């Protein structure tokens, strides 16, 4: 079952930071702030990406990655101030495969 995850990072090195952002974008994660993404993923896919791709990019002595689950209740309580061009992720009504 797909859940929405809020993924935030603080990566010291520009190259690692860019690489992690590209990996997140490849998974259709939506950038909502410079180092913050909303990602629709099921738990197994998230765990797989963490262990095989995302954590391998980071230097865990210098960098940090945080992942917060956003359930339906939390998502309904999201408040956005300032630029509202980027609303919270909404799953599409249909998929074209």
Short characterization:
The chain has 97 residues and is of the alpha+beta class.
Could you describe the 3D structure shown?
The protein has 97 residues and is of the alpha+beta class. Helices cover 34% and strands 28% of the residues. It has helices spanning 14-26, 43-57, 72-76; strands at 2-10, 30-33, 36-42, 64-70. It has a 4-stranded antiparallel beta sheet.
Mean pLDDT: 86
Proportion of strand residues: 25-35%
Helix-strand string: EHEEHEH
Ranges where pLDDT stays below 50 over 5 or more residues in a row are none
State the helix count. 3
Cα distance, first to last residue? 18 Å
Query: Could you describe the largest sheet, including whether it forms a barrel?
Result: 4 strands, antiparallel
| Morphology call | globular
Q: Radius of gyration, rounded? A: 14 Å
* Structural class by secondary-structure content: alpha+beta
Q: Taking strands numbered 1, 2, ... along the chain, how are they ordered across the largest sheet?
A: 2-3-1-4
> How helix-rich are the residues, as a percent range?
25-40%
For the secondary structure, the number of strands is 4
Descriptive tags:
97 residues; alpha+beta; 4 strands; 28% strand; globular
Task: Detail the topology: elements first, then pairings.
Layout (H helix, E strand, L loop, with lengths): L1 E9 L3 H13 L3 E4 L2 E7 H15 L6 E7 L1 H5 L21
Antiparallel strand pairs: 1-3, 1-4, 2-3
């Amino acid at each position: 079952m797909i859940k929405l995850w809020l993924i935030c990072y603080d990566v010291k090195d520009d190259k690692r930071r860019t690489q992690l952002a590209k990996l997140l974008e490849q998974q259709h994660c939506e950038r909502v702030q410079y180092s913050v993404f909303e990602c629709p993923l099921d738990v197994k896919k998230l765990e797989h990406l963490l262990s095989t791709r995302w954590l391998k990019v980071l230097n865990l002595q210098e960098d940090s990655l945080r992942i917060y689950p956003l359930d339906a209740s939390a998502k309904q309580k999201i408040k956005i101030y300032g630029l509202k061009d980027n609303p919270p992720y909404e799953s599409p009504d249909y998929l074209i495969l």
